[in-house]
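Appendix B: a complete holo record

For completeness, this appendix reproduces one full record from the ligand-bound portion of the collection. The bound molecule is LTUXU72L. The inputs are the chain sequence and the ligand SMILES; the output is the full three-dimensional arrangement of the complex, encoded as structure tokens. No fields have been trimmed.
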Amino acid sequence: MTADTITAADSRINARWLIPVEPFGVVLEHQAVILQGSRIADVLPQSEADQKYRTRETVNLGQHVVLPGLINLHGHTAMSLFRGLADDLPLMTWLNDHIWPAEGKFVSEPFVLDGTRLAMAEMLRTGTTTFSDMYFFPEVTAQAAHDAGMRAQVCFPLMDMPTVWGSGPDEYLRKGAALIEQWQGDEYIMPAIGPHAPYTVSDQPLKNAVALAERTGAAIQLHLHETAFEVDEALKATATRPVTRMAELGVLGRNTQCVHMTQIDDSDLEQLVRSGAHIVHCPESNLKLASGLCPVQKLMDHGINVTIGTDGAASNNDLDLFGELKTAAMVAKVVAGDASALSAHRALELATLNGARALGREQELGSLVAGKLADLIAVDLSDPFLQPVYDPASHLVYSNHGRAVSHSWIHGVPQLQDGRLTRIDVPDLMLRVSEWRQQILS
Ligand SMILES: CSC[C@H]1O[C@@H](n2cnc3c(O)ncnc32)[C@H](O)[C@@H]1O
Ligand SMILES: [Zn+2]
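The structure of the chain with LTUXU72L bound, as generated:
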């Protein structure tokens, strides 16, 4: 090998194990990931990398598993500041009697900035590199994510009722269109449309949202069939199931992400398959609010793209996507009556490649393949709670809970190094969080 066959690159990450997600189900050993700028230049055995690359820096991760950064496809990011404020309640009591009054009182631009930073710190510490948000002041969330170097789909809220962000649907759509115009084409921020739910948005704003999505290419994300109550009330009022109403209004399509979907009959299933819509499974929120259970394996067996989200920290009550994967795998097995449902590798796919597909970015994100964007994480398997290692994929889903995530890179930029955040000032953030706590308690 001569010097001119050696390629210069920015960084090299050596890891004991690597799960590329593509091809499916593979665990490689003693691999090197080569980063150049924002992209993965190569993934190859360490012995070959020695011959082929010279890099400015090398990160040696001797007992770690490297995998694509996780994608949390549904949350209300700033609601981290409401974590633990109202527990042990069903959805509509939780919203009507506790959360919506608190939002009316406290949610503002500074609240969203600090709540988003708190959520991003937690997500980065536990392996998430891309998140989706649906909340008030989305322009603040988008800027905060961009400043922190996190990738985010930011869905502006759309509801009939006035809120802290505007007087009603016309204003939300006007501000939302400006958000889309500002951020469309950005590599980090994906602006999107967030109709809250069928029971809070009437037909005309939904039609306007569909028109905006068609005009701009922005995705639509909405809560759908979260509870049996939602479906029963719609049937009583209109004799139509919400999924059917959404299909008739043109809301369901390949660029639509339906969050929750715990209630699915045969006609719903058929319409979901036909539309190509994606499902965002949020098992811990569904369990805590006693909303219901999404039949993940059945949806996947019908070819529907299923992804995963935590929902907000006020209904979860954490943003640890590894914990969510464990819950998803456990619940899927019971719901299907089949212990082989949602295996560890399939669960990892939910939070990586399937999430990327729902965002329309599966060519760029979701797996460790040369040419894709360098969004990746490392999990340290050397701790006693992860020993011995027979199968790293098993440990990631069934034993880890995000505690062992040690490193992450987004767009090739280090975000987490040996468990320390590089771009978020945690002591300053903690002061602000404690001030919010005082204010909310008073
Ligand atoms: C329009 S901004 C988002 C809006 O949604 C509320 N919310 C949070 N979690 C849920 C959920 O599980 N189902 C329905 N609505 C939810 C949040 O408090 C905001 O008001
Ligand atoms: Zn939600």
